[in-house]
Amino acid sequence: MRQIENVVSDRGSKYAVSGGPVQGRAGCEAFLATLKRTKKYAKATHNSWACLLSEGGPVKNDDGESGAGAVILRMLERAELRDTIVVVTRWYGGVHLGGDRFAHVVTCVRAFLEAERTD
């Protein structure tokens, strides 16, 4: 599991990105369960995620951050990254960010993809 914390901070909200290889929908569920064993991630406002499964196709979950899963999924499709879940975590800071939240999701996914390329 790769975790990159403090990718973006904006008006009190903080973002992190996590990800790793998974097999099937059950693998996605197991990854999320492992991530949420850390109290900090379990208490996060949103853990939005997506994955392109070789068997089962695309899966995503906004976790209350409307549209975030679709943004993550589009980026995974462009990168042709399969069987790897990417989770963008947000701790809400009390101020609505409007459309800026999508830019922050993109920044987080880019950070993850760049870290994957350098390995």
UniProtKB/TrEMBL annotation:
Q: PROSITE patterns attached here?
A: UPF0029 (PS00910)
Pfam families, per this entry? Impact_N
Q: Name one GO biological process term.
A: GCN2-mediated signaling
Q: Which GO terms describe its cellular component?
A: cytoplasm
Domain called Impact N-terminal: residue spans:
11-112
Q: Which family does it belong to?
A: Belongs to the IMPACT family.
**Name of the protein in question:** Uncharacterized protein family UPF0029
Question: From which organism does this entry originate?
Answer: Gemmobacter aquatilis
Lineage at the top is: Bacteria, Pseudomonadati, Pseudomonadota, Alphaproteobacteria, Rhodobacterales
